[in-house]
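Collaboration report, partner site 2.

Our partner group contributed sequences for two proteins of shared interest, and the home lab folded both. The records are reproduced in the order in which they were received, starting with the first partner submission.
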Amino acid sequence: MVRDLFWDDDFRLKWDDMLIHAETLEECPNTGTMVVRWVRKFPFFCSDREYIIGHRIWESGRAYYCVTKGVPCPSDLRRNKPRRVDLYYSSWYIHAVESKKEDGQLTACEVLLFHHEKMGIPWEIAKLGVQKIDPGLRAYQRERDNLMLHSHGALSWLRSTPKLVQIS
């Protein structure tokens, strides 16, 4: 579920207060690789930021990996506002771990995140925008349980790896 939350830009618009626009520019049905455009809201004294990022997710064993980086996209013209962030790298690794119950069951997960971007604002201001994921994850879990929610992005990834993932 954490994998799907990170990959679901449609739902991210609901829980990430800084994300004000997300659209898929390109996608590869064979690999699930996507190029997306994000616009993130910044405080009034900074202009909003635009990201053109390519990302890919894959499963290896019982873990998931995602690599995301800023990419050029000639079809999406550069604008003065929002300000485009070109230097962007973000990677994460998700794997199942034993829960705090210590019952031997792998019912929790660990996420290792490596992230770097050059936003053009001081770190002290940028860290104010760090989101807590737990409320977004809980909302995603409720909505998904009620509606069997899968966004276009999540379904694209699932279609590109049908032998590895089951949808119940």
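Second partner submission, folded after the first:
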Amino acid sequence: MLLVYACTAPSINIHTMETEQGRGMIFHPGCPVLRGEQKMKYSSRHPCHHSPLVRQLLNITGVASVTLFPGHVHIEKSDDPPSLDWTSIKPRILATLIHFFSTKLPPTTHHLAKCKHRHKDNGECVTFGYLDDVEAIIDDLINSR
């Protein structure tokens, strides 16, 4: 007897659009990226590590910064090495985004972070210490409502 097991991956279509300067690209995954947030910006030198999606994207050679918006992800490429162009970076970014959004995990877990942080008006996250146990409980209560 022959058993055949077929498993199909979820269909996720990500639409892309290059920015005018050519240094950035917008990726529309067709599902919400951030809920209730305006934007969150990360760079490779960034101290916040509460986004598994951003960690994966920043590990791609040539990615300089990632900005999460409610409906899309904006990625800027680095100029180092100067020979990198979108044709070499884009397939890895798309594979990362498709894999991540198919898992149904939240793109950011900043409400679970044990570091004190705030977001500037431009979306950049700034850390300034760690929560003690009482502060963590209060923070969890605030963010769960």
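Feedback sent to the partner group on the second submission included the following. The helical segments are 52-58, 86-102, 133-143. Confidence is low (pLDDT under 50) at residues 1-9.
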